[in-house]
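Page 37, top half.
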Amino acid sequence: MNLYGATKAWAEAIGSWIAAEASISVVALRIGWFLEQRPEPDVSPLALSAWFSTRDAAELIRAAVEAEDVDFVVAHGISANRYRFAELEQTMDWIGYRPIDDAFGTD
């Protein structure tokens, strides 16, 4: 673990505590590789699997703000890449996030 990871874990723990103590809904966003354009196919497969498009970022933020019946959730911010760096099923179920873009696609 490094300082970045430790800080992220600390912030998520604080969010969980705030949600429990203040009865406030908290959605912690774990953002993947945010890049405006679809990456070139010659980048590493790991980078492609973590890609997060601007369109999907807007959708994730909308879903997080409009989520109902959520106390505390850690949501993954990646696009609908066919090979994924992180799973999206829970994020989709918990907050209704519906990504569209795929780093491995050709459209």
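Page 37, bottom half:
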Amino acid sequence: MSEKDRRQLLRILEDSYVLDMYVGRVKKNVSPHFHAAFQILLPSFDGRSGQITDAEWWKPDLSDTPPPKAIQPDQHFNCSVLDITGKAAVCKVEAIRDGRLRYTDYVTFLKINREWKVVGKVFHQHFAPDNSQEGACEIS
């Protein structure tokens, strides 16, 4: 893993991924760091499961997909694992709010024409949809 690739991926995670996934941008201004074939594979989440493609995720009138939530002052993100092999990479991103681990995202990247692109995401939700905090983990 080159230090240059590592820095580029961390910058994409901070400047693009977190903003697009957790804050939300104006739909037409989605970061160019996302590949056109980007998709999210959903576990059972808010009564849904399956796959959301890039076209579906960013569609302005997609009524059954909730918009990303705003980053709160007590929310932060950790890249606890970054593994790069050649032109493929994966990062484990932990979304923490109120001192509790809320989501663990596994973000995949491909290096295409010398540029890293976010190509996919799978995630785990660490709390029950009814906000009961079931399964939440304390961060010490």
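Margin note: The first strand starts at residue 34 and ends at 45.
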